[in-house]
Structures are given as structure tokens and as C-alpha cells.
Amino acid sequence: MALEPEGNNRLLQDVLARPGNETCADCGNPVTPQALLSSTPSKALLSLSTKQAPRTPAKKLDSPLDGSSGDGASGSALTDTSRAAYVTEFSTSKPDWASLTLGVFVCQACSLLHRSIPHISRVKSVQDTWDASDVELMAATGNNAAKAKYEQKVPAFYYRPTHTDCKLLREQWIRAKYERNEFEFIEKQEPYSAEYKAWTLSCLLFVSSPTKARDPKAVMKIETLNATFQPAKIGNPCGLQITYLKDNSTRNIFVYHSDAKEMVDWFNAIRAARFHYLQVAFPGASDEELVPKLTRNFMKEGFMEKTGPKHTEGFKKRWFTMDDRRLMYFKDPLDAYARGEVFIGSKENSYTVLSGLPPSTQGYHWNHGITIVTPDRKFLFACETEAEQRDWIVAFQRVINRPMRPQEYAGYHGDLPQLKVSQLCDRGKVELIHSGGPFQTQALMTTRSGSSQLKPAQSR
């Protein structure tokens, strides 16, 4: 009988190898390839880190990085670093935990979130000693069966987080599935479901008071609306950045809420509104085509230095945001409007990214330069570290290598149809972090069905 626990664990490994169980049930984190797991992390990282490309002088202007291969020099220079990061990430977060009560296999990061709902989920490491009854339970359920039950009615617009998303999204996804059973009973989707409300949303309104008849502080058309969680930038785990176009310039609004569920409900309400809006705008498009267009994360953000169009002005430190083909720069990360915006086209339209700065360039403080060549002028930037330089070049290269779509030639504000106004989330208070310049007066996010209060907060 001494061998029974060992036999149970071998059976458990067989269950773990079944289709569906090789990825985390909640974030889709894949199992590390066995070849990478066979080496110890230190050896794997050592073997990869020794292959990194040599440094190049910061001020020398390198050859274009948009060759026919689509990878370029920056891609090859980043390959080994990325692979090392891959080993580190996935060797420590493969599905090596299980929920005995739910019958699912999860990664370590999601297992910590399961521990926050102990009345629903009891987790155990697959490396522990297992009883035969527990192995039988896992064999009888598994990830695919659990998804068929707990995700049977997930709306097409609802955001399904991955392992790269913030903790807030992943935790509320887990709670929505297992604690609130939102995807088993459609009536529980009321806070964010446009179908349940029987209205569709075409704009979001900010007004100063729910009782006084005043013009709204802002009207955000769903046509250009985007929302992305920014906990680090805003300084709050529930921080959400809302962007929209105003007079063809990007306007930022930063909000957060004390209730994590409320904030995620707002996020999915915006996605629901965008989804139904696009269904009308593009009636022939499938759900699979529309869902990726609902909301988007920024491709890259961070500080760089920039100079003016004459290249003789001093370099100034600015916060940059790469939002698809829009490169925006701000004096402060929480500014309402960008100081400037640069459209990044494709290589077919003579856009190029170069590593380094022209030899005559002066006045920069950071030594890792980047040059963006456009049909009209060159844009010069400087990064603090070589790693930041590589990451920015990869982001630029990804956009430049992608052919432009017809709507991108027309700009970001095409003439799409307007819909009737309504709002989907109407409970709780939401605080306005910073809207640029003087703080707004107390404001409310209004809806046809109610309002959520917004209060000014101190800027960081």
C-alpha cells in the first residue's frame, strides 16, 4: 500500500495530459514545452542569455529594420531575451494546481485567486500526495467539462482575460464564473448586457449633477471609444483609462471605483455597446470579426526623449503611448490631451524605423536613439535603456510591417451610423482621477437607467 500515493499521482498526471487540461481553465496559460522543462531554469536562462546580440553604438544610424522578412535587426536582437522571458514565465505558471471542488486545473497565478473564494474553490498542488477519490473527481470533470458548465452563456462581447491581463480582470472573471454563476443564468448579466436592457449605447455622458439640468461635461461617441485597464499608471488596482476622439484628437479620462466588480461591469458595458454598434455599422461581419475591435490595449507605453522638427531643439522627456497607428506624447501620463500625435503608416507608404540617431544630433540625455522616417519628416527619440529601445523598435516595426487597411487611410473617424442612447451600468460611485489642467467639478456618468457618481481626486 506504500506505493498507492505514487500510483495516484501517476494517474493524476494522465488526467492532466488530457485535452483541455494542458492549459489553465481560467486564463488559458499553456503548459511549457517539455524540452524547456527538462532543464533547470537557471541552465535554460544561462544558455539563452549568452546568445544575446552585441550592443551597437547609440548614436550611429543603423540600417532600416523593415526588411522583407518582417523581423529586422531588432527582432533578432530581441529573440534570445524574449525566449528567456518565455522560459521564466511559463515554467513557473503552467497548470500545476487543481481545484478539488470545481474539478479544474489552473496555473499558480490563478490558484492564488481561487484562494480568495475558499467557500467555492479548494485548491491543491498536483505535486502533493493525492487520494484516489480526489483523482477520480478530477478525472470525472476536467477543464472542458467545467467550461461547458460555467461558461455556457458567456456573451460574445464579454472580455475573456488571459494570463497577461491585470489581476482585476482575471479575478472578476473567476468570480463571475464560479461564485456568481453569471454565465449559467443570463439574468445575472444585467449590469453589462445591452440585450437584457433592450437598448444600445451610442455615447457616454459626463454631467455635473444628476438633479440639475446642465449640459454634459463630455460626450463620448461609441464610434471612437476605447477602454483599457491601467492600474499601474493610475495608481489604483481598479483604474480604467477611457479614450475617445474629440475634434480628431485623443481625449483621455481616468476613472476608478472602490468595487472591482463595478469597474469590470463598466468595462464590459462599453464592450457591449461597441459590439452592438459595430453590428449595425457592419451588418455582414461575424462575431469573430467584431470582437477584436471592441477594445484594445496599448501596444507600448513609457518615457522617451524627443526633439522638435528642426532637430536642433533640446530633447525633452515625454510620456509616449502607442495606440495602434497613433503615437501620442504627453507631458504627464495622466494628461487629458496629448501634446502631439504622430501617425505611423506602413512600409509601403515609406515609413521606416531606424535604430540610433543621425550623427549630427545633439542635446539628448539618454543614449539609445530611435529614428522614425515618414514621408514628411524624421522623428527622433531617445530611450533610457537598451531594453526600452528594443521594445519600442519592435512595437514600431509591428505597425510599419502591417499593410494599412482602407479605413486607416480615411482616418479614425469615419461616418458610421448613430444609434439610440442608453446606458448599461448604473450603480455605485466612480472617481474621476485626472482630466488634465484644472480638476473638473463633481461629475456623474449618466445613463438612461441611472447614474454613477464621479468625484475629483488628487493627481499623483
Automatic annotation (TrEMBL):
GO terms for cellular component: cytoplasm; plasma membrane. Residues 297-401 form the PH domain. One of its GO terms (molecular function) is phosphatidylinositol-3,4,5-trisphosphate binding. Keywords: Cytoplasm, GTPase activation, Metal-binding, Repeat, Zinc, Zinc-finger. The keyword Membrane does not apply. Residues 9-191 form the Arf-GAP domain. SUPFAM superfamilies: ArfGap/RecO-like zinc finger (SSF57863), PH domain-like (SSF50729). It comes from the Eukaryota. It is found in: Cytoplasm. Residues 48-78 are annotated as: Disordered. It holds the Pfam family ArfGap. This is Arf-GAP with dual PH domain-containing protein 1. It comes from Collichthys lucidus.
